[in-house]
Amino acid sequence: MFGETWGDGPPQVLVLHGWRRTHADFVASVGPRSPGGALAVLAPDLPGFGATPAPRTAWGSVDYAAALEQVLEAEAPGRRLVVVGHSLGGRIAVQLAARRPDAVGALVLTGAPLAARPGKPRRPRAAFRLVRALRRAGVVSEARLERARQRHGSEDYRAATGTMREVLVRIVNERYDEVLTAVRCPVELVWGDDDREAPLEVARAIEDQVPDAVVTVCEGAGHLVPVTAPHALRAAVDRALARQSP
Fold it and tell me: Is residue 149 located within the same domain as residue 53?
């Protein structure tokens, strides 16, 4: 796993970026371009993104968390860190906190789709479901099914190929209710009020599930809070460092 380390001294913070993003998203909040100065940060590119090769098999968030446990054992043995997770990184961060409460002192989550959206769950369009069923029956070719995927799939799905497409399908179908109930550390939720990928209602639902969670709403920040509201994210990280479990 490749990435960077920022700041001086033993690591204080681990940052985990979102899907199709890299560790560079955090440069302005906790890294070298932060007005408050860089914290001591581990900033990896998650497998399949940036400089880090994709996993050989279709990983879920638990597999990503297990890989990061090895990073913590190598780079921050015996230390408890604040883990910052954006979107995909938030999915992984809660798994890591549930698995290793000794290593995660607090969480800062943003744009992380960890709770169901209000209303009915979204299903694939009927036209795509039909083509998929015909492919299973051997009536249409794999090429025809791929054309349907490109037409009806999400932007992330269309952009993903090979193992990473399988990773995406696996992860977007995960549920986190049990994992959230296992989180015992303080949690800061920093959310754009106009986030379309993980609406603010998701943050409110997480707040209801996690007793020690606090929500900060960033007006007009959208989904990419690490880039669009780095000052708010940094303030949450500073609070988390002060609040983290002993």
Answer: no
**In this structure, what CATH number is given to the domain that contains residue 24?**
3.40.50.1820
User: pTM (2 decimals)?
Assistant: 0.87
How many structural domains does the chain have? Answer: 2
CA atoms within 13 A on the CB side of 139: 7
Span 119-137, pLDDT tens digits: 444 555 666 566 567 667 7
C-alpha count within 13 angstroms, C-beta hemisphere, residue 69: 15
pLDDT digits (tens, 9 = 90+) for 37-79: 899 999 999 999 999 999 999 999 999 999 999 999 999 999 9
Answer yes or no: are the C-beta atoms of 45 and 28 closer than 8 Å.
no
Helix ranges restricted to H, the chain: 61-75, 88-99, 126-136, 142-152, 155-159, 162-172, 177-182, 200-209, 225-228, 230-243
Q: Are 131 and 150 in contact (CB under 8 A)?
A: no
**158 and 183 share a domain?**
no
Per-state percent for the chain, helix, strand, coil, to nearest 5: 40, 15, 45
Q: Which domain holds residue 81?
A: 3-116+175-243
CA angle 110, 18, 95 (to 5 degrees): 70
CA atoms within 13 A on the CB side of 224: 11
Residue 118 reports pLDDT greater than 60: no
What residues pair up with 86 in beta bridges, in sequence order? Answer: 110
pLDDT, tens digit, for every residue of 174-198? Answer: 999 999 999 999 999 999 999 999 9
* Residues 6 or more apart in contact with residue 204 via CB below 8 angstroms: 215
